[in-house]
Specification:
alpha+beta, 4-stranded mixed beta sheet, 3-stranded antiparallel beta sheet, 16 helices
């Protein structure tokens, strides 16, 4: 059997390229984007060769116990990376029958997007794993629609956001299985702590998604960076801020007077879910019911959302038909708690396009300034991190509201064409509408369609 690759020859012929130093900013950005597309296309080609190596069982001629281990040694990559390439290769390969007839890949839309360079290996891994986790009846009837949906959104979403969408699809199509997973997480919960020889306490914990959402809701404001003083930023690391936030949390728990219970509000975990879905029993598989989302952006079954909603200290955010929080504005300059909760649901910590600032204490910004007559309501406010709040004012960005969501118009110094850029981190309306289309038809008690 002839090996596919010559592992002895490691010489790489460098291709001539324009000096990066001589490029304009626009040329640099364009070239970086072009190279990413080319690398993705080359990855698709490599995956075709990996699939063929799999068919030939090429690793059997070596000491490697599997193709994954063989590939790991051949390319000097991590085991997880090797496993991803093998798994994706088996699903996007161009196949032939014994008679030489071409067969479409198992995931044709994913293969096409990868071949075009529109998505990367991580996108493909998310899609493959998302398809694998679907229930059996969805594999029989809806896998094509789900794959088309995920491959389509992969062209514009990061792998992390795509993974959240894939999870919501699974929660929609397998509500019983999702509920069992949540119960299994609850059973797997654990927290350990010990005192080291130097007197420090070490804590290790695994929390189910509900408890994790509560923890995050409490910790984020307590662990936020301190405001700058005379231009000096908070010198603490993220880990140190988290430790200080946890210490503050313990102080509040010990000091009951410092944690208002009457006439005030404690930090709240939020669950966003349609009011009708909150009321519905969802006892019949396939009934029109959407999963909710915690403030950690992870899905939660309607069953557990209803149970959690019994707690008077949970703040429900009821959504309208376009996945937007209902308007609950009041005539105040400072955004009250219910307005901030709705803004956080719509915009995330910061609505500025491409913001990657770590979670902290966001600032509610009036699009039309309050002193100029701007209202303190959802249609005139956005959430911004401190950095982008300053950027907005210093660079003089304009903001408009389009279909209830903010759009940012850069100044001519940033973009001479002043092309509007969508803001916010909440999923677009189309995501929810497409999820509605994926709801399976109701089944009778016998389990027949």
């Amino acid at each position: 059997m002839t090996p596919l690759l010559n592992t002895q020859d490691t010489t790489v012929q460098a291709m001539p390229a324009q000096s990066a130093v001589s490029c304009t900013d626009a040329e640099l950005a364009a070239r970086i984007q072009e190279l990413e597309t080319e690398m993705r296309m080359l990855m698709w080609e490599q995956l075709q060769y990996i699939a063929e190596a799999d068919h030939r069982a090429i690793h059997a001629e070596t000491t490697a116990r599997s193709l994954q281990v063989w590939l790991q040694g051949l390319l000097n990559i991590d085991p997880r990376d090797a496993k991803t390439r093998v798994t994706v290769a088996r699903n996007i390969e161009d196949r032939q029958t014994f008679h030489g007839e071409l067969m479409p890949p198992d995931l044709p839309d994913t293969a096409a997007a990868l071949a075009e360079g529109a998505i990367g290996l991580e996108h493909s891994r998310v899609i493959v794993n998302g398809i694998r986790r679907l229930p059996d009846y969805a594999h029989c009837h809806q896998v094509t629609d789900v794959e088309t949906t995920l491959a389509g959104y992969a062209r514009t979403m990061s792998p992390r956001e795509l993974e959240k969408l894939a999870e919501r699809i699974r929660y929609l199509l397998d509500q019983d299985g999702a509920y069992r997973d949540e119960e299994a997480q609850h059973e797997a919960r654990e927290l350990h702590y010990a005192t080291t020889r130097d007197g420090m306490t070490v804590i290790k914990a695994k929390l189910d998604r509900e408890t994790g959402a509560k923890f995050a809701a409490l910790m984020q404001p307590l662990a936020a960076p301190r405001p700058e003083i005379d231009g000096e930023k908070d010198p603490r690391t993220a880990g140190q801020r988290n430790a200080d936030g946890f210490a503050a949390l313990l102080d509040l728990a010990l000091d009951h007077d410092g944690m208002p219970r009457t006439g005030g509000q404690r930090p709240q975990m939020t669950i966003a879910i349609d009011f009708d879905d909150l009321k519905r029993g969802l006892e019949v598989i396939g009934e029109d019911g959407m999963p909710g989302t915690l403030n950690t952006e992870r899905a939660i079954t309607a069953h557990n959302a209803r149970r959690i909603a019994c707690d008077a200290e949970i703040l429900p955010i009821v959504l309208d038909g376009h996945s937007l929080p209902l308007d609950v504005g009041r005539t105040k300059r400072t955004a009250p708690t219910h307005i901030r909760a709705a803004l956080l649901r719509r915009d995330g910590v910061c609505a500025f396009p491409g913001c990657d600032r770590p979670p902290g204490t966001p600032e509610a910004h009036h699009v039309e300034h309050w002193v100029d007559g701007g209202a303190t309501d959802l249609n005139n406010m956005i959430m911004l991190c401190a950095h982008h709040h300053r950027t907005l004012h210093n660079q003089r960005w304009d903001i408009t509201m389009h279909d209830g969501r903010p759009e940012f118009i850069p100044p001519p110094t940033v973009d001479p064409r002043r092309t509007p850029r969508p803001g916010g981190t909440a999923l677009p309306t189309q995501h929810r509408e497409h999820l509605r289309e994926l709801i399976p038809p109701p089944r009778d008690p016998a389990g027949e369609s």
